[in-house]
Amino acid sequence: MFEVDEKFHLHTLFRGGFRLLTLLDLENSHLKKFPVEVVNLYYLKYLSLRKTKVRIIPRFIGKLHNLETLDLKHSQVTELPVEILKLQRLRHLLLYRIEFISHEPFNSKSGFRIMANIGVLQSLQKLSFIELNQGGSNMVKDLGNLTQLRRLGILKLRREDGKDLCSSIEKMNSLRALSIVSIEEDEIIDLQHLSTPPVLLQRLYLRGRLEMLPHWIPSLHSLVKLSLKWSKLKDDPLVYLQYIPNLVQLVLCQAFAGHRLCFKAGGFKKLKILGLEEFDKLKCIQVEPGAMALLEDLSIRRCEFLEKVPSGIEHLAKLKLLEFFDMPAELFNTLRPDMKDSEYWRVSHIPEVYSIYWRDGEWKVYPLESLIDGENCPLPSTAKKTDELHTRWK
Q1: 3-class secondary structure for the chain?
Q2: What would the mean pLDDT of 347-352 be, rounded to a whole number?
Q3: Higher pLDDT residue, 77 or 374?
């Protein structure tokens, strides 16, 4: 359905049949209620109500025995009927929303309450995001029956459920993507009990307090993307992460409480995208020659005590894009070519350098060229689209 008028009703479309329909994509349509006509589509395999205003999934969805994909992302649904458990061929169950304005708060994601016996859906390959806070230990253990999972998203994890979750994850040998968010910002995510992590894991996203970096993360040879947010680690995580062999993208938000980050020579050999956000005490970033040799994209956000560009950034020969989001104006002003002790020489090789601020409900983008032209910083350019910046940061 593309740009369908709000007055359009599905029953006019289905009046003549479509009984053999296998795919129905209603994304972004003006639907407010689940279309009852769908109950007659016995052969339906794919149903998307993404970005609609549908709030309730009726019990008759249990009649769609051939359904393999149910996409409810960014809809208004928060709970699923128990009849979902009748859909034994269901492979992809996606239900979550993300609230994102200028930055992503801790509780920006919401999903759906986990139901008892979800382990009967043994064909599931994608499941996100389930809320575990009301599930209890038995439901966490039940996840271990979903051995075909390739993607798992978990919200509101409690510390006491960490051991059972580790036991369940060890049975998911096909897992490629894992996202875990604790129930509160300061709640510990306890994953130290995972002795044999999924060897095929490519994407790992952890949001919540970590007493220490899980010992198994550096051994993930297939890991491509890693995000650690609100970890508040006491020890520098770069020491343990720098030798993950195939890591391409790394995002760290409030991950470390120290004053200095150092990227050592020979570390992060395949890293292309690096994001650093909200390091409350960070005053210095150092890049040694030979570190992050393939880095192309560097974003630094909301590090209020960082007043200079990373020392050694001039060694990053492949760097194409450098962005500072809501950073002190003093940092960007150090790049003025006409200023005494200017640091412009450190970034002169980078094709795109921007200072970006959230103002009046939109991103204002100030290019480095405004300083080169002799203008006072900052001079706004044409604002970049918000979704473009979101996608880049994601």
Answers
A1: CCCCCCCCCHHHHHCCCCCCCCEEECCCCCCCCCCHHHHHCCCCCEEECCCCCCCCCCHHHHHCCCCCEEECCCCCCCCCCHHHHHCCCCCEEECCEECCCCCCCCCCEECEECCCCHHHCCCCCEEEEEECCCCHHHHHHHHHHCCCCCEEEEEEECHHHHHHHHHHHCCCCCCCEEEEEECCCCCECCCCCCCCCCCCCCEEEEECECCCCCCCHHHCCCCCEEEEECCCECCCCHHHHCCCCCCCEEEEECCECCCEEEECCCCCCCCCEEEEECCCCCCEEEECCCCCCCCCEEEEECCCCCCCCCECHHHCCCCCEEEEECCCHHHHHCCCCCCCCCCHHHHCCCCEEEEEEEECCEEEEEECHHHHCCCCCCCCCCCCCHHHHHHHHC
A2: 93
A3: 77
Q: How many CB atoms lie within 10 A of CB 22?
A: 12
Model confidence at 115, pLDDT cuts 50, 70, 90, reads confident
pTM, 2 dp = 0.90
| Residue spans per domain, the chain | 258-394
pLDDT band for position 394 (cuts 50, 70, 90): very low
